[in-house]
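Morning, I've got a small favour to ask if you have a moment. It would help a lot if you went through both lines with me. I owe you a coffee for this, so here goes:
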Amino acid sequence: MKQSTYLLTVGLLLSIAPSAGYPADAQNNDSLPFAEMNSLQIPRVDVEGFGPLRVVLQRENDTSPLFQLIEAEQASPGLIPGATFDITTGLLEIPLAKVDSEFYQAEMQLLPGDQFQLASADAVNTAAGEPLVPFTFEQLRSGSIERILHCSGPLFNPEEHDGYVDTFVETAPFMVRLDLSLTPSNRFTPEEKLEILRTHLETYSIELPHLSLTFTSTLADGTVDGLDDDLAAGELDDLVIGIAEIVRDAKVPFFIRIGPEFNGFWNGYAPDTFAAAFRRVVDLFRENGADNAIFNWNYKAWQGDPTPYMEFYPGDDYVDWWSIDLFTSDFDVASVKIQADAFLADAAARGKPVIIPESAPATQDLEDPAVWEQWFVPYFELVRGDANIKAFCYSNRNFAKNDVTLTDWGNLRIDESAALAPLYQEELRRPVYQHRIDF
């Protein structure tokens, strides 16, 4: 079919769309396509070059593969896109639609007369270990996903997390980062640490958790001792097994970041023992049935870093995703950019997807509008421009208030920045991002 036919149909859709006002779906942020009686309702379908539309298709009868377009109107840009329409091929792609209590991925082909023919409809497995999202667990593990996962965290301070979610409620984060230390301490017993983890998961109903496991100790003289050797030797096995059991029983995909920023001198890790410690954690998870875990290996690009990072690599069989932390006051610091580019290139060469678990403009003042062009614009250009980056997390923290070690860092809470929060929200509305879907 010729492209002009598709353009004519899109033109008809737009001609019957109201010039002002958004449908009720925009008020409750319900953007999941769903079947009701013999109609298929799509709260937001993105049409390249034309914008978002709300569409209703009516099925001819219970057995027919044909659907007639009966409603079309402008959709709220705040809704998460639930489908896309390609004006060149006439293909309507629906990554996830709810039909009664089941979920399907579907494709529909435009025909003359504003009809769509159901080309395919595949059930999406929502059993244990399978997410209620437009991809399967194996697609997530391999990074074979179309959109970039939007992450928030860490849950150090519930006020910071809640402020972020409440401010950007139209585009709520799909993944939430938690941190847990494996280091023995006088403050919490291993059992108490496990209970804290359970409580966080229950309190926040996290659909896709991202758990960072640290193992660094600060000695009495102020020096840092990495406990990678202890971990590799099995001295922390009981706690790791307890975490693995919680992850297994959560029955949702679970990102695990083992030894964040392995190359940071502030962690004190050694290449051989770090790689061995990483492998031990993965082995313990696998031995204890935590097959829903997705393991990522985390590097920090920082100015002047001499680390040959591949010396710390546990091996392709133990790493699902690579990850990189990006904290710079100026995103274009030459040495940091060189390191980041090299790391991303190596990840792509090995076929590993990349997540950015931590990122922020370090020492900048977020009330200065110039910071958007200086840091956020090149940051999001990287996130959107590198096809291998599949997830990002902005570190929404008031470092000046809640982190005594980074004395020159300020309040980097984007939700509290009157100057930058609207720009950040507009960026998140781009259809390339995967946000949380509530059913």
Summary: Residues 330 and 374 are 6 Å apart (CA to CA). The first strand starts at residue 34 and ends at 36.
